[in-house]
Amino acid sequence: MHVAWADRRSRWLLLAAGLVLLAAVLVWGRNWLGEKLLPDPRMNRRLEQAQAALKTGKLSAADGSGARELFESVLAVDPDQMQARDGLLAVREAAVARARAALLAHRLREAESHLALARALSAPQVELQPLDARLRDLRESSADLAGLLAKAAQPGTEEAMALSLYAQVIALDADNPAALEGRDRLLSARLQRAQAALAAGRVGEGRGLIESVMAMDPGHLDLPGARAALGEAQSAQAARQAAELERAAVDARHGRLERAAQRYLALQAEDPALAGASDGLARLSTRMARLAQRQAADFDFARARGSLEKARRWDPHSPELVVAERSVLRSQEARARLRPGSRRDRERLPALLAEATQAIARGDFITPPGSSAWDRLRVAAAIDPRAAGVLRLEREFGDGARRCFEQALGEGRLGRAQACLEARMLQDPGTADQATRTALGERWLAYAQERIGAGDWSQAERALVNARRWMPGNPAVDVTDARLRTARGQAPPR
């Protein structure tokens, strides 16, 4: 019995020891799991601070508040902390990206700092090597920065040259204080000149100076004030130009063409892009060209030449000039064949009228030169402008030319239609209204497009010349002209 009791006691002792051991294991395990599953709240705060620093771009800081230092402090406590490890990788990638951007902007010191951080975080050499090489190249090219700065600051250096030198320095070292200060000083002086130009009414000059500063330093501190002054000056200029355009229009309506032209020319010199001025000069040029035709018809060639010169000066591209110059030339030729007061010329009048009648019947209104209806009619009119036959044939000439134009245009004979319209304009410069011109110009434009499609470049070019003559400034003509140039460039050599 004593042995049985001893066995039972041993079992109880063993059981008690096992329970004590189990309790110890449970306590230790709970603490270990708690450390792993429930991290120290201080570490959580440190990770949050590190992520915030990374997000704001504060990659590293000597006081320990940078993303790198915060992540490393967490790893010092727990080397297996995955968030901190991933965070350091993100810091490294950001440092490489920052270094690359700094090199593109030629900010050498900043690039060097970011490269050092990336290298400290064991960035792969395959990423660092090209960036290091670029940094070396930029350092070598910027070795003469001091010389560039000295040359820019040298007395007598022109402003444009100095600004160019400062720009070279800034391109190599974006934060160079001497270059930034020198550029700022010169641009401030330029803006002061712009303000003075605006105050004196030289808006174009002031605008050009301000735009040049904007191109070089859009963040210049003096720019907002200068741009505000430019806006006010442009508003005042627009109001003044509108008033001057109206005064020029009034002069033109009252026949004061010279005064109107002077107003338009002054406006155009002030602002070459002012459409109202160029349009006004075009209208005056047309009127003066028509006046030259009437003067030539009266054999007043000195005044006709003066009128042509004014028309050419006011708008050298006016389509009326071509017709007017031809009309003056024809009148001069007719006058050369006459002897004032000659009995022989008066005896020639019936024959001239008969020849003019036949030429009108054939449709030879202005061609061939010398024997056309117009040439014969001008000689007859010079002999006796009030003769019944002359007046009758002048009416027949106008009616015939009008019918010729309408028929030829309807049949698509554009060259013939143009010649007949020119004949009408020789007799009456005002007969070709805008609708008539546009109708002929559009037909020439359509023909040019058709010839481009057929690969007939020479005919297309001639058609475009005619289209531009009757529709100057029409954007469709420019578009088709560009199409022709493109097509020619793609055409195989012949």
Folded structure, characterized:
The chain is mainly α and 494 residues long. The protein has 6 domains: 1-27; 39-141, no CATH class; 145-241, no CATH class; 272-336; 339-432, no CATH class; 449-494. It has 22 helices and no strands. The protein has helices at residues 2-37, 41-55, 67-77, 82-104, 108-120, 125-141, 145-153, 159-172, 177-199, 203-216, 223-253, 257-270, 275-297, 301-314, 319-336, 343-362, 373-383, 388-411, 414-427, 434-453, 457-470, 475-490. Helix 5 packs antiparallel against helix 6 (125-141). The longest helix has 36 residues, at 2-37. The radius of gyration is 45 Å and the shape is elongated. 30% of the residues are buried. Mean pLDDT is 81; it is low at 25-38.
Topology overview:
Layout: H1 2-37, H2 41-55, H3 67-77, H4 82-104, H5 108-120, H6 125-141, H7 145-153, H8 159-172, H9 177-199, H10 203-216, H11 223-253, H12 257-270, H13 275-297, H14 301-314, H15 319-336, H16 343-362, H17 373-383, H18 388-411, H19 414-427, H20 434-453, H21 457-470, H22 475-490
Main β-sheet, in a few words? none
Distance between the termini: 131 Å
- Whole-number count of domains: 6
Fraction of residues in helix: over 70%
Radius of gyration: 45 Å
The portion of residues forming beta strands comes to: under 5%
List the uncertain runs. Answer: 25-38
What best-fitting shape do the alpha-carbon axes yield?
elongated
- Taken in chain order, the helices and strands follow as HHHHHHHHHHHHHHHHHHHHHH
Strand count: 0
Structural class computed from helices and strand pairing: mainly alpha
Kindly state the mean pLDDT as a whole number?
A: 81
Number of helices: 22
Oligomer: single chain
